[in-house]
Design brief:
The protein is of the alpha+beta class. It has a single domain, classed as Glutaredoxin (3-Layer(aba) Sandwich). The chain has eight helices and nine strands. It has helices at 66-79, 97-111, 115-127, 136-145, 150-157, 160-175, 194-197, 204-223, and strands at residues 3-4, 18-20, 26-28, 42-43, 55-61, 86-92, 180-181, 183-186, 190-192. The protein is globular.
């Protein structure tokens, strides 16, 4: 599943087929031995510049996206099993004004070394407690509730460094042509997502499992400079 950029209400899914592999994630059992370009993944028309030596995998997400919330346990477990030559990171999108505030929250916490620790609580604030976090006041209240040093958090939240990282994140999402989340960018060349990889009628978890299976395939392509 995916939340689309245009209104963050449309949900779509495309077809794929999969089976459970030995590691607990589905392996693609698709025509001609792998995922199909244009269906389970897309190739960027213009590859992005990437650092040599490692295959970078980027998860594009939004704290407020219910599909990102459902995908989080899958991608978290998968990311911890990636080989040493794969560099995984998350990038929070900033599609509109309130989401840009959430993007700043992400990068402020990251700069403080607190994002990974607090991510489950932030997702729960959005999707379990259903808090309204669409203004700066509510975000500061959440930060205080989570026990953060408010002087340090406020400084980080309003810092030039966080503004710069937010701008870079938005530029990267545009370069990957991200129009919905969650999505996975691989090696500056490929894009997949639960919406692309999953079969209609599957659960959100199954869609996520399909996406990381396709991502494994794309990592191999990127590693082999395909």
């Amino acid at each position: 599943m995916m939340m689309k950029r245009r209104d963050f209400s449309a949900i779509f899914s495309l077809s794929a087929i999969g089976m459970i592999g030995a590691a607990g994630f589905p392996t693609a059992a698709l025509a001609q031995g792998g995922p199909i370009e244009g269906r389970q993944f897309q190739r960027l028309g213009q590859p992005l510049a990437v650092a040599p030596g490692k295959v970078e995998v980027v998860e594009f997400f939004w704290y407020g996206c219910p599909h990102c919330f459902a995908f989080e346990p899958v991608v978290e477990a998968w990311s911890k099993q990636l080989p040493a030559d794969v560099a995984f990171r998350r990038v929070h999108v900033g599609f509109r004004a309130n989401i840009k505030l959430h993007q700043r929250l992400f990068f402020a916490l990251e700069s403080m070394g607190k994002e990974e620790e607090l991510r489950p609580r932030i997702f729960n604030a959005f999707h379990v407690e259903r808090l309204n976090l669409d203004d700066e006041k509510s975000i500061l209240e959440l930060a205080a509730r989570m026990g953060l040093d408010m002087a340090k958090f406020t400084a980080a939240f309003n810092s030039f460094g966080v503004q710069t990282k937010s701008a870079q994140a938005s530029k990267l999402s545009e370069s990957y042509r991200i129009d919905g989340v969650p999505a996975l960018g691989i090696g500056g060349k490929f894009l997949t997502s639960p919406a692309m990889a999953g079969v209609q009628g599957q659960s959100e978890v199954q869609h996520g499992q399909q996406a990381v299976a396709v991502a494994d395939y794309l990592i191999k392509l990127a590693r082999n400079k395909a």
